[in-house]
Design a protein that fits this description.
CATH class: Mainly Alpha
Strand order of the largest sheet: 1-2
CATH superfamily: Farnesyl Diphosphate Synthase
Distance between the termini: 19 Å
Number of strands: 2
Number of domains: 1
Structural class: mainly alpha
Largest sheet: 2 strands, antiparallel
Shape: globular
Radius of gyration: 20 Å
Strand content: under 5%
Order of helices and strands: HHHHHEEHHHHHHHHHHH
CATH architecture: Orthogonal Bundle
Amino acid sequence: MSKLEEIKYPVKEHLEIFEKKFKSSMKSNVALLDIITRYIVKRKGKQMRPMFVFLSADMNGEVKDSSYVAASLIELLHTATLVHDDVVDDSNERRGFFSINALWKNKVAVLVGDFLLSKGLLLALENDEFNLLRIVSEATKEMSEGELLQIEKARKLDVNEDIYFEIIRKKTASLIASCCAAGAASVGSTEETVNKMKLFGEKVGIAFQIKDDLFDYGNSGLTGKPNGIDIKEQKMTLPLIYLLNNSDWAAKRKIVNIVKNHNTNPEKVKFVIDSVNASGGIDYANQKMKLYHQEALDILAEFPESDSKTALKKLVDFTIERKK
């Protein structure tokens, strides 16, 4: 049994039922839409988001119909944002599969994203799940704000550590936070518990993103992600921010110039990666990641022992131990 299969075990049946419900939630009378949504389902990843929903629900009560609505709602809205992201980024590939825009062009991809978004909204409304809709809509808004803040700051590369954490809290952590909050809310948890689960998810999400940052400076053969991708996309990651904060004016100017104007030059990108490694930026980012990881575990420690709590702890560990 793989690590992920072991984590899934307490909610394995719920995840299997969810997959069927999620497929049916995307059905349409338009043949082209059905072909595309079937393709989306086929290329789905590790089920991380539904795992967070169902484990959070199971730890706080008994999984019910609302929990399936919560998981489907998050997947529909998140998948819509991914389809739109691929158009925005002009990306032809996602998780080793062709993107929707690569196969069916941008116009179709944008409309498919809109369709998935509306299906999510309707799913919540048809089931009178206004609280779940509020939780997930808030996350979707934050994700958009995070992306736009990142684009705004990438122009001048004036990202300090506070802004960096604001970007990743909105862009990445808000989604995992909404999974945990929606899972708890779906079983009738108190507002205090829902907020606690949201904060737990936020801490996990931040640790998850810092781990992603570190992949950019690691061994690409081990991580499955080529080195320097974030540099080529002018993304200000934590190790790079640390390097800039600890460089003199001339060195800082040189690094910023490479990231802004020479980010496709392999030798210059390698120089930035080597500089980050030499500066202690990797160690610093690792320490920050472990801090958020521990803060997430501290919140989890407040809940009674259960199989789902143990699985959530393993899932938190997995986010910072994963190889890709």
